[in-house]
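[agent] plan:
  1. take the single chain provided in the ticket
  2. run structure prediction with default settings
  3. attach structure tokens to the ticket
  4. add a short note for the reviewer (M.T.)
[agent] executing step 1
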Amino acid sequence: LLESKIQEAKSKKDTLKARAQSA
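[agent] step 2 finished; step 3 output follows
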């Protein structure tokens, strides 16, 4: 359960990073 939450946070972070780079 904890690992899935970490994975979710990581993917969300990556999405924000990708969005910031493309902006």
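[agent] step 4 note for reviewer: The two ends are 33 Å apart (CA to CA).
[agent] ticket updated
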